[in-house]
Design brief:
The chain has 408 residues and is an alpha+beta fold. Helices cover 37% and strands 26% of the residues. It is built from twelve helices and 13 strands. Strands 1, 2, 3, 4, 5, 6, 7, 8, 9, 10, 11, 12 and 13 form a 13-stranded mixed sheet that branches. Residues 1-24 and 391-408 have low confidence and may be disordered.
């Protein structure tokens, strides 16, 4: 099957204005996925002309499609300008009943509606678009989708980049739709350009208490033996580190009375494939931190366009609170990225105590829905907020009964 439909007989096309099409107009097509080899060629070719995130790379998207749960049928949205392919995205339709009564349809951008599978967490989400026309393509895609939402439908936009969120807000203002906030978060990172401009000493730029905690922890570990920081060089070594990460990660979360990421049945098989695909490309970096042959921490990072993204970690916490394996592991990884000449060490949106201590840059990252302004959507949003407040209150009341989290 070709990426492009043979005809426009289904009417699924968008032109930049209401007049006749011309070669410079942006045209949009939505149709079933082509064969994976054909989609891989088209996606990777466009990726080379785009400035998109790791989560829109074929390394992530190809693994995401390959492990897709049964019964989910993603649709390919392809955008053309003249004869050029300038945009690609994947949309998953999901039928549900709003408030348990009203039938509605969600169009989910790089999400599935499957609770477990979506907990793999797409971040820095948007449309894969040619960098020359990226803003125009994103605006056109969201405007086209917004115009096809019926009364009870909505477009689900999770983990958006700042540029994609701005486009969604522009489209909502133009279309008269409402944009509702599902989850508000932020991404924090270490801009290594700022560190280099300040002399290149990352630790020296930390707050006095944080710097003292890192150095004290390192001294205590070094008193036990050689401190090791090793990046896995092969897929087998990376998978070995991933298995070690699982042990420490699950132990830490279970001590808090929570399940941990590996309790999700979709998590391990997806990431084992991603590691197998990403390590040879240099897109996945598994790190082991050890002392005297004993592992004290593992980091699972992505590397994309000279940016390191911290996705997951597992650390060997001990009774001595002066030992901070997570904090030390991240500092060593940041110093390693600095030495490699990389631009950024990104903690992304996951809540963690070390993020504000180590980061020097931040931006919002939100999970939104776009749809017609209907009473049922407003009621559902109100119920969602009330439920969220109730859950937060319960968590606060239980803090004394649950083992405290050692975020660093």
């Amino acid at each position: 099957m070709s990426i492009w439909p043979r005809t426009d007989s289904d009417g699924i096309a968008f032109n930049g204005d209401a007049g006749p099409a011309n070669p410079t107009d942006i045209r949009i097509f939505l149709h079933p996925l082509p064969a994976m080899p054909e989609l891989a060629r088209a996606w990777t070719e466009l990726e080379g002309r785009a400035d998109a995130s790791f989560f829109l790379s074929w390394t992530w998207i190809g693994s995401w499609l390959a492990q897709m749960p049964a019964g989910i049928e993603p649709q390919l949205l392809a955008t053309q300008r003249g004869e050029d392919l300038v945009g690609l995205a994947l949309l998953c339709p999901r039928k549900r009943r709003r408030l348990g009564l009203l039938p509605s349809r969600c169009w989910m951008l790089h999400e599935t509606g499957d609770r477990s599978y979506d907990r793999l967490f797409m971040e820095y989400n948007g449309v894969l678009a040619d960098r020359r026309v990226a803003d125009e393509v994103t605006d056109a895609v969201l405007h086209w989708l917004a115009g096809r939402l019926t009364a009870n439908d909505e477009l689900v936009l999770g983990g958006l980049t700042l540029a994609a969120e701005r486009a969604a807000r522009r489209v909502a203002a133009r279309s008269g739709h409402t944009l509702q906030l599902r989850v508000a978060d932020s991404a924090q990172w270490v801009d290594l350009g700022i560190v280099r401009a300040g002399g290149g000493d990352f630790r020296g730029g930390l707050g006095r208490n944080t710097r003292s905690a890192v150095n004290r922890s390192e001294r205590l570990y070094r008193s036990r033996g050689t401190l090791e920081y090793r990046v896995a060089e092969t897929v087998d070594e990376a998978l070995e580190y991933f298995a070690g990460l699982e042990v420490l990660h699950q132990a830490g979360w279970q001590a808090r009375g929570q399940a941990g990421a590996f309790a999700n049945p979709a998590f391990r098989p997806f990431h084992e494939r991603l590691i197998a695909e990403g390590v040879p490309r240099g897109a996945v970096r598994l790190v082991r931190i050890g002392v005297g042959g004993q592992s004290i921490g593992y980091l699972y990072n992505f590397v994309h366009r000279n940016r390191v993204l911290n996705y997951q970690g597992g650390f060997a916490f001990e009774a001595d609170n002066r030992l901070k394996p997570g904090l030390l592991s991240h500092v060593l990884a940041i110093e390693d990225a600095l030495a490699r000449g990389e631009d950024c060490y990104d903690f992304m949106s996951t809540p963690a105590g070390h993020k504000p201590l180590l980061s020097n840059a931040e931006q919002p990252m939100n999970w939104l829905t776009l749809g017609p302004d209907r009473f049922s959507r407003r009621m559902e949003a109100h119920c969602r907020r009330a439920r969220g407040l109730m859950v937060d209150a319960v968590k606060r009341s239980l803090r004394g009964w649950i083992a405290p989290a050692k975020g660093i």
